[in-house]
Amino acid sequence: SSLNSLVTALTIADDTNASFNGDLSLGGDLKIGGGDIIDHNDGSAIQFTGSSNVKIVGDLDVNGNDLIFGTEGVATISNANETTNDGAGHNLTIKASAGKGSGTGGSIIFQTANAGTGGGSSSQNTHANAMVIDESGDVAITGDLSVNGNNINYDAGHSYVSIAANSGTNQGGYRLILQSGQGTGSAAGGNIYFDVSAAGSS
């Protein structure tokens, strides 16, 4: 019988560069001496800084569902600062998945985990929704909302401040309390004003 044909699996050029025609499986570690992983267009796709940090030059698509940071410290997602003098900063967009056709879009959900009630527990505390921004732009906040600014402004149109209805049978509604700022010492507390706009002349 005739011999099987030979195919080139590995090519080592005179500049010591090696080229594999198939996949490469390593049983040990992979050390990048040059610091970069080059894509098929000879562009630097992944850069190693030498301090265990990795820079992705292009976009990063994660096919999995979770992006989890380590437990060594506070995690931060940020956009790079502008380096040009008097240059404006860049937006950071967090975007939920869009629906298709009559399907609604996804919500943006912020979750936190409260401390447990018992000490010495080895189980992790449970996450719960702290704020949800749904597909229509409505925001639901589970806890209190503190505004450090001086104004809460509404866009054009009729606006409402209301308390959600109680549920169950013969259950009373909840109170709505407007509370002005407290003074200190002999100073009086703040006033509560209700302003309306009178019609002007035509």
Task: Summarize the structure in short.
By secondary structure, the chain is mostly beta strands.
C-alpha Rg (nearest Å): 30 Å
Low-pLDDT parts are none
Overall mean pLDDT stands at 89
Largest sheet: 3 strands, antiparallel
Strand content: 15-25%
Q: How far apart are the first and last residues' alpha carbons, in Å? A: 105 Å
**SS-based class:** mainly beta
- Strand order in the sheet with the most strands: 3-4-5
Please count the helical segments. Answer: 0
Please provide a written account of the structure.
With 202 residues, the chain is mainly beta. Helix content is 0%, strand content 16%. The protein is built from no helices and eight strands. The protein has strands at 10-12, 18-20, 36-38, 44-48, 54-56, 108-113, 127-133, 139-141. The strands form three sheets. A three-stranded antiparallel sheet has the order 3-4-5, with no helix packed on it. It has a three-stranded antiparallel sheet with strand order 6-7-8, with no helix packed on it. A hairpin with a 5-residue loop joins strand 1 (10-12) and strand 2 (18-20). 0% of the residues are buried.
